[in-house]
Design a protein that fits this description.
The protein has 2 helices and 28 strands. The protein is mainly beta.
């Protein structure tokens, strides 16, 4: 474990490793995105590029040369990474679509080559990256999205009022517009797409983060009240009886009373199926969701 050299100058909002290497993208409230090579001890900053407003999320695309960013400038942007640098000197930064409020999350699904963004304007934008000239589709949500995650077949959207929608990606892909119908190709075309499932969170308080299992079996969600829930997609009574929730990220104060912290982040290991949680208490914990036990807890960090 080591600290990266040349870190962002403000809070980090998101970070993503490349699918098949140790290159790392970091989004920050300092209005910049950073690309690191973490194969070296201490890491090496490869490039930085600026946005007009704080950046809230980032992800890699079909290759490690494609990066996508979203933030408080309301835009969904693409940057081409070449020769271990962000090729911005040639203007290789493209606005794919614009929401009407900050864009909280962006994810890429390789199976259907879809890029999906979720905005506080209560919409999803779905981009078919296999058809660059096709406009993105816009799906209206019942409330503000807080977190999204996807598997090879499903997209899970956690929203306000404890609402949760699960979409079938094959249906979403087949519902996308095929050609530009306006003079502005980044203008999203509204479509109607019913969720595969509508659920209410099994947690009593606001959802903070959600992460899907890599085996496409279910997902974990976390709340502001120091709890994590593990659930399965299969709607059968047998599978739903397996779901559970547990308390975490709580610290006893001097009076012996538990201080409850939000669970701000969740991430599954891509092969082993274990997952990590990061809390407002400054701790990162590793969990075995099948055995229902904590594997380890890292030392406390200076901030959440």
């Amino acid at each position: 474990q080591y600290e990266l050299a040349n870190p962002p100058s403000d809070a980090i909002s998101a970070l993503k490793f490349a699918p098949s290497s140790l290159r790392l993208l970091v989004a920050s409230w300092d209005k910049s995105v950073y690309l690191y090579d973490t194969t070296e001890n201490g890491g090496r900053l490869l490039q930085t590029f600026e946005h007009r407003a704080p950046v809230l999320d980032v992800c890699f695309g079909a290759t490690e040369n494609d990066a996508y960013t979203t933030g408080l400038d309301w835009d969904v942007r693409q940057a081409v990474l070449t020769d271990y640098s962000l090729d911005l000197s040639t203007g290789a930064q493209t606005v794919l679509s614009s929401h009407s409020a900050g864009v909280k999350s962006v994810v890429y699904g390789s199976e259907h080559n879809l890029l999906i963004s979720a905005s506080w304007d209560s919409t999803l934008h779905i981009h078919n990256l296999a058809s660059p000239t096709a406009p993105p589709a816009s799906i209206t949500l019942p409330s503000k999205p807080f977190s999204i995650s996807l598997t090879s077949t499903k997209l899970v959207v956690a929203m306000a009022s404890r609402a949760l929608h699960i979409y079938d990606l094959a249906s979403a892909s087949s519902s996308l517009p095929q050609q530009t119908t306006s003079s502005s190709p980044e203008t999203a075309i509204p479509i109607t797409l019913d969720p595969w499932q509508r659920r209410e969170s099994s947690l009593k308080f606001m959802t903070r983060a959600i992460a899907c299992m890599p085996n496409d079996a279910g997902y974990a969600s976390s709340s502001i009240e120091g709890r994590v829930a593990v659930e399965w997609f299969d709607p059968s009574p047998e599978s739903q009886a397996r779901k559970y929730a547990f308390k975490c990220h709580r610290q006893a104060n001097e009076q012996g009373v538990d201080v409850v912290y939000p669970v701000n982040a969740l991430a599954f290991h891509p092969r082993h199926g274990t997952f990590a949680s990061g809390g407002g208490d400054g701790f990162v914990a590793l969990w075995d969701g099948v055995a229902k036990r904590r594997i380890r807890q890292y030392q406390r960090y200076a901030s959440s």
